C-alpha cells in the first residue's frame, strides 16, 4: 500500500526530502515552460504550510544542466535557498540550517554519477538530509535511480500529490471495461512492443496507427516506399492477432505532392505520412459504445503538418461516452490546440513512465514506495 503525504499532518519542524520532476525546458538561462514546477508546488506547499522544511531534489535530462533557472523561478514564489552541490557536507549543512517553512533546492542530481547507478552510499547521503521522503516525480518512476528507489528504503516514504494523481489516473487503464479499445500510434514499434503485447491481453481491440502501422504493412508484404519503419520483426505476430485493427487507407507524400491511397498501393518514391481520416472514422461505431479507450501516439507526422488523422481521432475519442485515458509527450503536443482537454477522463503527462506502467502494471518507483516497513 502506498501512502500519500496528505496523511501526515505533523510535519512542523520535520525535514522532508521531496523528489520532484522539475526537469523543465530552459531557454537563454530562463525557464521556458513552468508547468512541471507549478504542479510541484502543491506538494511543497502542503509541507511548508505546516511548518515542514523541504529539501527539494530533481534531475535535468541534460546531465550537465543546472537547476539554477528553476531556483530563480521558484524564489519568486516561495522562500528558497539553492545549493550548487548535490550531496556531501555542504548539503548536510544547508539542510540543517533550514528554518520551518523553508525550502532548499539541491543541484541537478545527475551531476553526481552515483544517482543513475543507484549507488547505495549516495542514497544514504541523500536520506541523511531528512526525516521523511516523498516521491512526487511519477514521470521518472520508471528509472531505478538512487533518488527514486534507493532513498525510500531508508526513510518513511510517501507519494506526493502529482504522483498520486498519475497513479490514480492511469490505474483504470490496467483493467479496462468491455467494450474496450487501445489506440497506439507514434514512431518506433520497438519502444512500444511490450506495451502492445500487454494491451492485447486486456483490451478487446488494439488499433495500430502512426508509423507503427508501417511495420505491419511491411509484414503484409506491401510496398511502403520511403516510409519510416522500426524493423523489429515483431510485426508478423501482431498481424496474426485478431484483436489488431490495421487502418487500410493512408496519406502519402511524394514527388507529386500528398494524396490519399490504399496502404497496399504506395509508390516506391512515396512516404506514408498519416492515417487517412476515412480509416480513422471506421472506429466511430466502436468508440460510440466503448466503455474504455486508451490512446497513445499521434497518427501521423504532425510536426510536418500531417495532422488530419490525429485531429479526427482526438475529436472522436473526446466524444466517446466511456472512460478515455490518453498520454504520451508527442500525443499531448499534437492535440494541444484542439481545446479538448476537458473532454478526457485523464491526461497523463508521465511520458515513458506511462508506457512502462501500462506495459508492466507497476514501476520501480512505485514498488519502492510500497515496500517500506
Ligand atoms: P508519444 O510521445 O506520444 O508516445 P511517439 O514518441 O511514439 O509518441 O511518436 C511521436 C512521433 O511519431 C511524432 O514525432 C510523429 O511525427 C511521429 N509519427 C507518427 N506517424 C508517423 C509517420 N507515418 N511517419 C513519420 N513519423 C510519424
Ligand atoms: Mg515521444
Automatic annotation (TrEMBL):
GO molecular function, one term: ATP binding
Keyword terms of this UniProt record: ATP-binding, Cytoplasm, Glycolysis, Kinase, Nucleotide-binding, Transferase
Binding locations of substrate: 21-23, 36, 59-62, 110, 143
Single GO BP term: gluconeogenesis
Residues the entry annotates as binding ATP: 192, 303, 328-331
UniProt protein name: Phosphoglycerate kinase
One Gene Ontology cellular component: cytosol
Subcellular location(s) of the protein: Cytoplasm
Pfam families the record matches: PGK
InterPro entries named in the record: Phosphoglycerate_kinase, Phosphoglycerate_kinase_CS, Phosphoglycerate_kinase_N, Phosphoglycerate_kinase_sf
Catalytic activity annotation: (2R)-3-phosphoglycerate + ATP = (2R)-3-phospho-glyceroyl phosphate + ADP
Homology family: Belongs to the phosphoglycerate kinase family.
Broad EC category: transferase
Coiled coil: none
Pathway(s) where this gene product acts: Carbohydrate degradation; glycolysis; pyruvate from D-glyceraldehyde 3-phosphate: step 2/5
Main localization, broad class: cytoplasm
Assembly mode: Monomer.
EC number(s) given by UniProt: 2.7.2.3
Amino acid at each position: 500500500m502506498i501512502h500519500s503525504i496528505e496523511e501526515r499532518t505533523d510535519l512542523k519542524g520535520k525535514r522532508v526530502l521531496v523528489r520532484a520532476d522539475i526537469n523543465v525546458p530552459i531557454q537563454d538561462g530562463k525557464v521556458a515552460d513552468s508547468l512541471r514546477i507549478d504542479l510541484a508546488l502543491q506538494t511543497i506547499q502542503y509541507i511548508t504550510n505546516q511548518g515542514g522544511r523541504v529539501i527539494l531534489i530533481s534531475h535535468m535530462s541534460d546531465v550537465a544542466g543546472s537547476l539554477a533557472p528553476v531556483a530563480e523561478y521558484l524564489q519568486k514564489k516561495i522562500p528558497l535557498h539553492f545549493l550548487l552541490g548535490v550531496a556531501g557536507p555542504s548539503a548536510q549543512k544547508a539542510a540543517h540550517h533550514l528554518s520551518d517553512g523553508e525550502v532548499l533546492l539541491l543541484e541537478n542530481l545527475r551531476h553526481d554519477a552515483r544517482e543513475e547507478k543507484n549507488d547505495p552510499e549516495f542514497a544514504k547521503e541523500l536520506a541523511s538530509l531528512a526525516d521523511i521522503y516523498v516521491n512526487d516525480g511519477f514521470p521518472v518512476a520508471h528509472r531505478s535511480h538512487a533518488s527514486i528507489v534507493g532513498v525510500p528504503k531508508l526513510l518513511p516514504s510517501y507519494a506526493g500529490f502529482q504522483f498520486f494523481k498519475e497513479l490514480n489516473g492511469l490505474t483504470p487503464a490496467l483493467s479496462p471495461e468491455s467494450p474496450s479499445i487501445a489506440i497506439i500510434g507514434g514512431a518506433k514499434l520497438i519502444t512500444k512492443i511490450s506495451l502492445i503485447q500487454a494491451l492485447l491481453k486486456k483490451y478487446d481491440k488494439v488499433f495500430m496507427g502512426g508509423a507503427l502501422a508501417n511495420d505491419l504493412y511491411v509484414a503484409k508484404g506491401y510496398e511502403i516506399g520511403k516510409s519510416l519503419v522500426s524493423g523489429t520483426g515483431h510485426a508478423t505476430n501482431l498481424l496474426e492477432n485478431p484483436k489488431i485493427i490495421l487502418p487500410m487507407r493512408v496519406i502519402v507524400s511524394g514527388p507529386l505532392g500528398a494524396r490519399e491511397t490504399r496502404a497496399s498501393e504506395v509508390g516506391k518514391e512515396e512516404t506514408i505520412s498519416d492515417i487517412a481520416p476515412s480509416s480513422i472514422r471506421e472506429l466511430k461505431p466502436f468508440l460510440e459504445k466503448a466503455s474504455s479507450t486508451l490512446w497513445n501516439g499521434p497518427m501521423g507526422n504532425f510536426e510536418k503538418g500531417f495532422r488530419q488523422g490525429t485531429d479526427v481521432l482526438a475529436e472522436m475519442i473526446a466524444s466517446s461516452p466511456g472512460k478515455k485515458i490518453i498520454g504520451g509527450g508527442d500525443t499531448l503536443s499534437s492535440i494541444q490546440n484542439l481545446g479538448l482537454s476537458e473532454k478526457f477522463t485523464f491526461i497523463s503527462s508521465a511520458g515513458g513512465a506511462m508506457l512502462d506502467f501500462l506495459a508492466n502494471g507497476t514501476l520501480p518507483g512505485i514498488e519502492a514506495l510500497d515496500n517500506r516497513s
